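Run: sequence + xylulose-1,5-bisphosphate -> complex structure.
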Amino acid sequence: MPLNTLIFDVDGTLADTERDAHRVAFNRAFAEAGLNFVWDVETYGRYLKVTGGKERLRRFLDDHPQHQRLSDADIARIHRRKTDLYVEIVQSGAVALRPGVARLLRAARAAGWRLGIATTTTPDNVEALLRSTLGEEGERVFHYIGAGDIVPHKKPAPDIYTHVLQALAADPADCLALEDSENGLRSALAAGLHTVVTQTDYTRGQDFSGALRVLDHLGEPEAPARIVEGKDCGKPVCVGLEELQAWWEEAHAAKSTRPSA
Ligand code: XBP
Ligand code: MG
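>> structure
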């Protein structure tokens, strides 16, 4: 079977949502809840290693016992408000898709490829992002969206990718994952998926060993991306179906057909 399915991460991959949308929404929710701390850009970057907003807040509080203690119910309540605030930010049009994303989605749909989403973030956030960037029918671009607490273990565990593969009735050998972070890459590799990484300011410098290629973004014809790790490092490229197919075939031609996590 040729490559026929792409599974996208959301935060950092479809759009650069973390610094100016998720982080800002968290801080607004903290202020509304009367919490006396703020996540600056650097602090948020460190805690991004904990996937999932509720889990991230719990870890931060565990590391900072000087702040007020919160029950799991308190965290869930603050996080629900954070989701509403995030959705408001996204609905205001403040977040755009990363370069090349809409172009690649269009090309994949036109070629009859299957499209999935495997993300740690809350389903409401995905819906808002897809509608604000791709239009009212944005969610329908994807054949299946797997998001948030639907699986027991968040990335870097393979659960969300395994779940999406099952929902799409897809063999990982026929699919490719697109990710932006080491946690996401580990998750996709552990589910048996070859993976292309488009790094962000927050994930640059992470360990992307095992990725087919690492790029600064997917690129557009008039503003190509650059391969920053992997074969042809330094080369400008506008990532389309042909490039993904070639990188995937190259990996399949290598001694093992399955990536190693
Ligand atoms: C990113 C995450 C999410 C978001 C916040 O995941 O780890 O937790 O930072 O979203 P991915 P929530 O890159 O897999 O999309 O607050 O809704 O968890
Ligand atoms: Mg991500």
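>> summary
The chain is about 40% helix and 15% strand. The first strand starts at residue 5 and ends at 8.
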